[in-house]
Amino acid sequence: MKIAVAGTGYVGLSLATLLSQNNEVIALDVIPEKVEKINQRISPIRDKEIEDFFKTKNLNLKATLDYKEAFEGAKFIIISTPTNYDDEKNHFDTSSVEDVIQKLISMNIDTTMVVKSTIPVGFIKSMKEKYNIDNIMFSPEFLREGRALYDNLYPSRIIVGEKSERAKEFANLLKSASLKDDVEIKFMDSTEAEAVKLFANTYLALRVAYFNELDTYAEIKGLNTKDIIEGVCLDPRIGSHYNNPSFGYGGYCLPKDTKQLLANYDNVPQNLIRAIVRSNRTRKKHITEMIMRKNPETVGIYRLTMKSGSDNFRASAIQEIIERLKLEGVDVIIYEPTLKADEFNKCKIISDFEEFAKKSDVILANRFEDALKDVKDKVYTRDLYSRD
Prior knowledge:
This protein is an alpha/beta fold. The chain has 2 domains: 2-188, NAD(P)-binding Rossmann-like Domain (Rossmann fold, 3-Layer(aba) Sandwich); 223-380, NAD(P)-binding Rossmann-like Domain (Rossmann fold), CATH 3.40.50. Helix content is 42%, strand content 14%. The strands form 4 sheets. It has a 6-stranded parallel beta sheet with strand order 3-2-1-4-7-8, with helices on both faces. A 6-stranded mixed beta sheet has the order 13-14-12-11-15-16, with helices on both faces.
């Protein structure tokens, strides 16, 4: 079977890699460097399993800049283009998804579009009405950055937003390519599937925000955060997962998905969803205030990435803290080995760690790593477990 994948971020590239084990897969992107890397079997994103598959597996995978080459003859076309949240318009910018839909309509080919990009509740229904089409459905993804292919190989669940034979065929494609024997598969209408994605990620954000607020309380009151968290998490109904304090939730999904869900709550009673969004801002404000109590002249930022094992800077919590520190008149320098530049957001990047540590009065580390052990007295972190 020929399958096309539009967009080669974490979602698209992991799916293209997964499905190209047993199918012909053409991956479409608009960035020539990414296309070239994929064709040379160099992963353009940091993901251990994708890198391993590129080295060891005989994948029937090709990348292209030509959408007609990608889409012609494809049984399924997976749309996994980015949908950033537009704070001014108060909803996802779905123009990249709609652009793919328009291209497919212009080609007039017999295919089924499967949207994997995160979209507002009701988007698929609106596209069907707007373009008078029926060959489109939504299937949410549940992937971690840096472990995207692993999470496709061992999926927590497969959800397809349609109750049809083609939905079953697509679900079986994903299941047959996975390494997990008993995968829960659930079919529902696309609007409910869209809601599942946003509510799942907002719950995760809620959990992050909860333990961050617990940590804020303990820090201000001079209490032992770790003892409190471990005592709370011994309750099996709560559990010890997703409980490590941080500077705030960030990354591709949680910040934008919580805001989109809040926007979808327009004219619906709620208090909790808005509080989750506000809590993340409050946490970053608190972290900044705790740094300023140390009266630093220069603050060093150890890594811009949202979490270890990721090369994603987008919406990382540290970026808002950087802006707050700059407004306080603090000089901010950055150590980020994955970034080949002299500056980031008008902050100097220092590639030599020893020089970076020497110039920093305080070093901010969202996640503590072994490299910081010798300068531990300078480090400010809320990381308790050296894990995400």
